[in-house]
Amino acid sequence: MLERATACLKVGARDSVHCAQRAPRSKRQLHSTFWNHGAADIELPPWAVGTHSANNKVARHDNRRRQSRSTSLLKDPDQRTQVPNPQGNGIYLEFLYPPQALAWMQRTNVQARERWEKGKARRLPDGFLQASRGFSSSRPARDDEPKGSGVEESFGSRPIGGLGEASARDTTPSVESATNRPGNTRQMVSELNSQPLESQYELARSEIPILGIRDVVEVTPDHPGDTIVPPEHEFTPVHNPLEILRRSIGGRPNSVHARDVRRIWFLYQSLDPSAKDDSRLKHELLLYMARLRDDTAASHTVTLFYALPTEARSLSDYEAAIVVHLRSGDYDAAFQVHRQALQNIPNGYQITRGFFQYAMRDRAWQHAVTIKEDHDEILSDSASANKKELFWLHVMEVPDLITKAFLFAAYCSRLETKEAEADMMSDPRIGQGRMPSLEQSRATCTRLCQEAMRKVLPTPYRGDDDPQKTKIYRTLDHIRKWDVEAPRLFLEYLEDLLRRFQRPIHYKGVHLLVSYMYSSYREIPGVKPPQKLLETLLARLLELAQTTRDPKYTIKNITYELIAADFKLYHGRLSGSAARLLMTSHARLGALEEVRKDFAYLQEQYPLYADQEDALWALIYVHARRGEWAQARDAFEEVQQMAAAHGAKTQLKWWNVLLHAYSRANKIRASLELLERLIVETDLIPEVQTFHPVLELLALRGDVDGIENLFEQFEKLNGGPHQTSFVGSYMRALIRSGEIQEAEQVLRKAVPDVRAHKITGSLTTCFNILLVAYARQRNIEATMQTYRWMKEERIRLDAQTFSALMLALVVYRQPDSAVTIMNNTMWSENLRPTAIHYAIAMHGFIQTRRFPKAISLHKTMLNKQVKPSLATRRLYLQAKARLEARSPTRYTSDRTPLPLSDVIAELRDAVGEADKADMANKDPFFNPGGGEDVLSSFASIIRIHGDRSCVEAVKQLLAMYKDAAKDTNDEPLPMRIISALMNAHFEAGNHDAVREYWNLARAEADRTASRVSLPDFTLLATLEDPLGSVTVSEENAHSTSDHEDISAEIGFSAQAPPVPPAPTPAKTTAVAKPSAPSPGLDHILSTPLAYRMRSLSERNRIMDILDTFTSLVRQGYVFDIIAWNTLIQALCTAQPPLVLLAFTLTERYLIDQFPGWTTSKGARNYAPRPEPKRSGLQYIKGRYLPFDVIAPQYKTIVHLASALTRLKRIETMGGVRQGSDVARFVGNMKRVEESAPRTLRAVETLPIVPSDRLQQRLLGRQEGSRGEMYT
User: Fold this and answer.
1) Region labeled Disordered — which residues (predicted)?
2) From CA 109, how far away is CA 93, in angstroms rounded?
C-alpha cells in the first residue's frame, strides 16, 4: 500500500504542471490530515470509483463564505458530484491521484463547462471549482456546520408518505402568518390569489415528493454520441461484486449517470444464484432503483418487485412499485399493486392514504374513486371498520382540502352531462382501469366534502373578498344536493359555528357563512329546525343587530325577524325563552313599540306571571336606553303595581335599571334619592350593579371623595368584593379631576388584585379608560406604553382599545393612520369597526379640513352596513356644512354670506326621521353631561352659520331646535347650543343677546355642575324611622369662605405693596352663595365666558370683565387656554391698557408652560401651517400642546407687545392720573420688569414678521421695514 502511494506521489509531482488547478508550494510542513489522505480506494478498479457516497460532510475551504462561487472549493449541492471518501474525516487530495484516474473521473462525471473556462481547459473532478489555496490540504469540516450544508442534505428530508404532503405553494397560509404585518394584509392576500390555479397546480406537482420515496434523483442520460455496448463488454467482472454492490447502493446518491444504473445492474447479475435470491438484497436494490427517475431503473424496480416472494414484500416495496407505475402513467398496474398490498400486508391501508392524495393532487378524480372503492371492498369485514374511518382521518390532514373538495364537486357536476362524458373518455388517463359509476363518484365526493367542511369550520375565511368563500358555498351545495345526511350535517355545521363564535365581534366574521348554511338548510325538504338552534341563532342575530344598519334578509344575510317567523312556522309559537329574549333585545335597541308588541305577545301566549316576571325589567330598560328617565320612572311604578297584584316583591334588578336610566340622564340627585328609597323601603341588599350608576355620575363630576365614601358604604352594606367596574369609575373620577398619574397607580394596584381574585371582572375597560385619557392629552408615548403594558399583562383587547389608539393618532393630525388601524389592524385581531371608529376618523378629517374625505368615509360606513350613531350623523352634517360654506354659490355678488340651504334641509330631514332609539347604542360619545343626544347636530350647524354672520339662519335653526325638543324632559338649552348662539350674536354685534345667553349659561352651570353631599346609607339602613332624617343636600361639601382676596386671585400677592384692594360693588345685598362646581365640571363655562369677555371688551367694560372673571374664580371654576388668552387680550386693548395686570397674570398663570418661539432669525420667510394658525400657536414650539396646557398664544404676545409700546407712550406723556381705579393696573415699565421678567423676555424675542397682518395692525410694521425685536 505504501509503495503504491509512493508511486502515486511521483506521478502526481511529474504531471502536476499539466493540471488546470495548481496548489502553490508551501514552506510549511504538511498538515496532519495529509496522512489521512482518503486514497483507500486505490485498489478498486477504475469503474468502481465514484459510485458511492461519503457518510459525512465534505470539508469546506472557508465556512464563512461557502455561498460564494469564487471562493468556495465545492459547488452548490445541485452541481456537486460526490467524491470517493470512504474514511469519515478524509480530505480529498487530488495530487495523490495519477493523471489517468483524474482523466477518467472527468470523462465519467460529465459536466457542463463554466463560462470562464476555455474550450481546451482541463478540469478537476466534478464538484470542485478553481480557487487559490495556500496550504497543501484544507482544514477538516467543522462539527457545528449548519444543517443542510453537507452532501446528505442535497435533496431535503420529506416524510416517506410524502405523496400527500403539500409544498409551500400548495399550503394555504395561516391566519397568523397572513396578519403579522397588518399594513400588508390585503396585499399578501391579493398576491397569493393573483396566480392562476393551473400554474399553482403545476408548481405544486413538481415540489411534492413521490409516495414512499425520498431524495428522488434525476439520472443523467448518455450523450447522443456515446456508443452503448452490452454490459459484459462495457464492464469488467470483479472478484467481490456483492461488496461493491452494497457499497454502491448504500447512502443517498446526489447525481447518477445512466452508465451507473447499468453498472449496478451488471453487478447484481454477476452474483451467484444464492446471493441473487437474497430477499434483503432485492429489497435494498429495489428501493435504490425506485429513487432514480429513469426508465431503465423503473423496469429493474418492477422486475425486482415481482421477483420478491409475496410473503417477503414490505410496505416500502409496494410503495416503490406503485411509484414506478405512476411515473410511467400506468394506473392499471398501480391499482393491482395497491390491491395486493391491501390483501397481503396488515398495514397496506397506509398506501391507500398516499395513493388517494396523489390522485387528488393529479386531479384524477375517477382514479381517486377507484382507490377508495378498492380500499373499502377489500376491508369490508367488520374487523376493518376502524381502518375505513382512519382513512378519512388521514384525508383531513391534506392541506387545502376545501379546494380539492371544490374541484371534485365541480367534476361530479360535469359528469351529469354527455359532453363531459365524451371529454372524460378522450382523456388518456381516464381510459385505464375500472371506470367508477356516477353514484360511486358522488358518494366519495360527498364524504370528501364532509371532511373538508369539518376541517375548514374553525377558520372559514377572512372577509368577503376571500376566494375560499365561494369554495365553501359550492361544497355546501354539493352536500345539500347529493348527501342523504344533509339535514344532520348542516345542523352539525351550524351548531359548531355558533359554538365556536359566541362573542358578537367574532360572530360577525362568520355571519354570511351562517346565513348561507341556514338558508340552504331550511330549503331541504322535510327539515324542522330544533328550538335550541333557533334560540341560539336568535341570540346571535339580535346581538348583531346592535351594530348593523337595517339588515335586510337575503340568502346570504338572515335576520332575527326571519328566525322569529321560522319559530312560529315550525313550532307554532315562540318559546318562552325566545319571546323574553326578543323583548329584552328590542329594549337594548331602544325599540319602544316593538317592546310593547313583544310584551303583549308574551302575555297572550304565556299568561302566567311566572313566565313574564323575568322580562318585566325590559319595560323599564327600553326607556333607559332612550334617555327617557321620567318614562322609565313611570314604567317602574307600573311594574311594581303588576308585581303587587300577583303577590310578588319588587326585584332588585328593576331598581338597578331605573338607577341606570337616571345615570344616562345625568340625574345625580334623583339617583341618590332613589338609592335612599331602596335602602329604606325594602330589605334588598344593594349589589355592584346598584351602586355602579351612581359611581358613574360621581366619576363624571370628578368627585373622588364621594366615590371613596361610596366604596366604604358598599363594603358595609354588601360585604362582597369590588368589581373592576368600581375601579373604572374611580379612575374616571381621578382623570376628570386632573390626576391621571394617580389613575394609573390605581390600575397598577388593581392588576395583581384581579390576579389574586380580590377584585372580579375584566380589566379591559380600565385599560381603555387610561388609553383614552392619555390620547386626549396628546401623550402618544404614554398611550403606547399603556398599550404595551396591556399586552404584557395579556389583557383582552376589544374594539374600544383600538378606538383609543385611533384617537391618539387623530389628535396628532394623522387620520389616515387611524383609518389604517380601523381597516387592517382591527381585522387582524379579529375585531370589526363600529360607529365609534368611523366617528373618530371623520373627526380627524374634519380637523384637517379634508371634508370630502369625511363625507366619503361616512358613505363607506353605510355601505358596509355599520349602524350609524349620533356622533357620525353630527360629524357628517358638520363636514357637509363646512364643505358647502366653501362653495362660491353660498355668497351674494357683494360677498354677503348666504344660509347653507342644503345642509339645513338635510338637517330638517334628519330631525324628522330621528328617534330616541338612536340614543340606545352605548356610543362612548354619548355623555349625559355634554355628549351626544338626538338634537346634538344643531350646535355645530348654528356655530357655522354664526361664523358666517347669518343671523336669520341662526334664528331659523333655533326655532327648529325648540320645535324638535319640545317633548324632551329637560327644558333649558344645553350648554353647546348656548355657546353656539353666543358666538352667532357676538359676530352680529348683538351684545344684549350675548348678555342674556351668558346669564342663561351661568344659571345652567350652577344647576348642573354644583357639588352634592352623599347621605350615609349605612346609617339609613340602621335607623328605625329613617324617612326624612337624612336628605340629599345641594350645598357644597367644601367651604368657599376661605378664598383669598380678589386682588390675589387676579395675580397680586396679598402682602405685596402697594397693591390696593380690588374694587367692590358700592352696594351689597345678602344673596345665597353659589355652590362650587364639581372638579370634573369646573371648566363648563370656559367657552361662554370667552364670548362674554369679547363682548364686554368691544365696549371697553373692562371692570365688568374683571368682576365676572374673579367671581367665577372665587366660586371654583377653571378656564382653558382660550378664556385666559381672551382675558389678557382684553386687558391689553382696554383704554387705557391695563399693562401691569396683563403682564402679571401672564407671568403667574400662563408663561410657565410657554414652549418658546420656533425661530428668532429668518422669521420673515417662515410661513406657519394652517393648523397652528387656527389654534393661535404660529411661530411657537407647541404644535401639539396638551389640551389642558394654559400658555400665551401668539396673538396674546403681540397684544402684550402693543400694550407695552402704548405704556411707553403713556409714560412719555406723563402717565395715567394717580388715584383712579385703573391707574394701579396700568403700572409702569419698572413695575412690569419687576413683576413679569419672563413674560417681558417672551415679548422682546417675538419674531418680526412684517408680512403678518396682526403685527401690521397692532405694531405698525410694514413690508420692507427693519427686522428688529420689539423692546
Assistant:
1) 54-89, 121-186, 1058-1079
2) 18
Cα–Cα distance, 282 to 262 (Å, whole number): 16
Same-domain status, 1014 and 1138: no
Residue 999 sits in the same domain as residue 1134: no
Whether the Cβ atoms of residue 872 and residue 958 lie closer than 8 Å to each other: no
Please state whether the predicted TM-score (pTM) of the whole model is above 0.85: no
**CA 325, chain centre distance (Å):** 51
Q: 18-22, 453-457, 859-863 — which one is most confidently predicted on average?
A: 859-863
C-alpha dist (Å) from residue 576 to 399, 583, 614: 45, 11, 10
* Amino acid letter, 1130: A
Q: Is the peptide bond before 487 cis (omega within 30 degrees of 0)?
A: no
pLDDT in tens, 352-402: 888 888 888 888 888 888 888 888 888 877 666 677 778 888 888 888 888
Output the domain CATH number for residue 1003: 1.25.40
Upper half-sphere CA count for residue 538 (Cβ side, 13 Å): 28
Position 316 in a domain: yes
DSSP letter assigned to residue 1146: I
pLDDT of residue 1213: 81
Q: 832 with 509: CB under 8 angstroms? A: yes
Looking at the structure, do residues 1003 and 859 belong to the same domain, yes or no?
yes
- How do beta strands 292-293 and 256-257 pair? unpaired
Is 31 part of any domain?
Answer: no
Q: Are residues 1006 and 1127 in the same domain?
A: no
* Cα gap 241→942, rounded to integer Å: 104
**Cβ neighbours of residue 713 closer than 8 Å, sequence gap 6 or more:** 1014, 1016, 1017, 1018
pLDDT value of residue 1220: 63
Asked whether residue 857 falls in the same domain as residue 997, the answer is yes
Question: What is the torsion angle, in degrees rounded to the nearest 10, for the CA atoms of residue 741, residue 747, residue 750 and residue 752?
Answer: -100
Residue 19 φ/ψ, nearest 5 degrees: -75, 150
pLDDT in tens, 593-615: 999 999 999 999 999 999 999 99
Residue linked to cell 475551504: 61
1124/1014 same-domain check: no
In terms of Cα–Cα distance, which of 530, 468, 542, 441 is closest to 494?
530
Max mean pLDDT among 131-135, 479-483, 854-858 falls in 854-858
In a domain, 533, yes or no: no
Alpha carbon of 166 to those of 211, 806, 1127: distances in Å? 12, 41, 75
Beta bridge partners of 292: 217
Across the chain, mean pLDDT equals 76
Sheet of strand 292-293, all strands in order from the earlier edge strand to the far edge: 256-257, 217-220, 292-293
The secondary structure of 363-425 as a DSSP string is T-HHHHHHHHHHHHHHT-SGGGHHHHHHHHHHHTTSTTHHHHHHHHHHHHHHHTSHHHHHHHH
Please count the structural domains in the chain. 3
Q: Which of 331, 359, 387 is the last residue of a domain?
A: 359
- Same domain assignment for residues 976 and 1125: no
Instruction: Determine, yes or no, domain membership for 203.
Output: no
Which residues, including other chains, have CB under 8 Å from residue 945's CB and lie 6 or more apart?
Answer: 899, 900, 953, 954, 957, 984
**CA–CA separation, 158 vs 728, rounded Å?**
55
All residues at 6 or more sequence positions from 230 whose CB lies less than 8 Å from its CB, including other chains = none
Residues 1133 and 1008 in one domain: no
Partners of 1010 in the β-ladder: 1077
**What residues make up the domain containing 316?**
260-359
| AA identity, residue 988 | A
The C-alpha atoms of residue 487 and residue 472 are separated, in whole angstroms, by: 17
3-class SS letters over 436-450:
CCHHHHHHHHHHHHH
How many whole angstroms separate alpha carbon 460 and alpha carbon 468? Answer: 8
Query: Contact 635/623 with Cβ under 8 angstroms?
Result: yes
**pLDDT at residue 145, as a whole number:** 36
